[in-house]
Amino acid sequence: MADAQIDVRNVSKSFKRNGRTVQAIDGLNLSIQDGQFVSFVGASGCGKSTFLRMLDGLSPTTSGSIEINGAPVNRPGRERAFVFQQDRMLPWRTVLDNVAFGLEVQGKKKKEARAAAMELLTVVGLARFANSHPGELSGGMRQRANLARAYAVEPKILLMDEPYAALDGQTREMMQAWLMETWEASKRTVLFVTHQIDEAVYLSDRVIVMTARPGRVKADIAIDLPRPRTLAVKRTPEFSQYIDQIWSLIEEEVKESMNLEMQMGASS
Question: ABC transporter domain: which residues (predicted)?
């Protein structure tokens, strides 16, 4: 096997909440190869989003190490881009200027940055909205612009934290299909956090099932469905089998997580 692009070794993360130490992640070990699409699922509070923030260098590990191409992660880097659940677009800038923003921060001249941003807006089907402001776009359009902004800085690794959680079902499915098309074209490494099992199976090469807090890898499931994929794959028996397999692993974890949260709430 080729050397891992991302190497996570015995990573733990704890933090203080209401005067108590909360162990969010404990002994997480994981290797991810260049160009893989890997999704993370698990009960609420199992550390999925926390792990992405550590991988981006936004939050330090309590113990253990995270390396990208052999270099330790201790701060955000240009090879990574983070797509949050909320698009976080700057409301006073046009869509074009929002997409160009990261390039400007990197030091590119405004004209060059805007030209590159316009190319991406064309790719995501938003060229005619380039001079609109974010508040004038639908949720799906804002997320397409948000992803274009992430792609603009040409990251090798794309970190996506429930980017479609706020979208309606139909828009979400269309955004999944669009993401598949763009990933097939670029083959960037993607780490994708979601609560939707079907979304994880549809998008991914691997689905990492996390245990309830503290988060560890409970299962690492290879998704052996042909690519390129269309939404029609969701109606196949093989797809349903993956859904059932992953849900059977998560069901008890979800119940355990809910009980833990109720206990902590009652004692606080």
Answer: 6-237
Collapsed DSSP state (helix, strand, coil) of residue 104: helix
CB atoms within 10 A of CB 140: 17
Q: What are phi and psi of 6, to 5 degrees?
A: -120, 125
In the chain, beta strands by DSSP E: 6-17, 20-32, 37-41, 63-68, 71-72, 80-83, 157-161, 189-193, 206-210, 217-222
Q: pTM to 2 decimals?
A: 0.87
pLDDT per position as a tens digit, 17-52: 787 888 899 999 999 999 999 999 998 888 899 999
The CATH number corresponding to 1-79+157-167+188-238 among 3.30.70.2120, 3.40.640.10, 3.90.1150.10, 3.40.50.300 equals 3.40.50.300
Structure tokens at 267: 């004692």
Order of strands across the sheet that contains 6-17: 20-32, 6-17, 63-68, 71-72
Q: What is the pLDDT of residues 229-239, one digit of tens each?
A: 988 999 999 99
Q: What is the distance between the alpha carbons of residues 174 and 179, in angstroms, rounded to a whole number?
A: 9
Query: Has residue 268 got a pLDDT over 80?
Result: no
Dihedral sign from CA coordinates of 114, 122, 231, 181: negative
Greatest distance between any 2 Cα atoms in the chain = 57
* Angle between helix 139-152 and helix 169-186 axes, rounded to 10 deg: 20
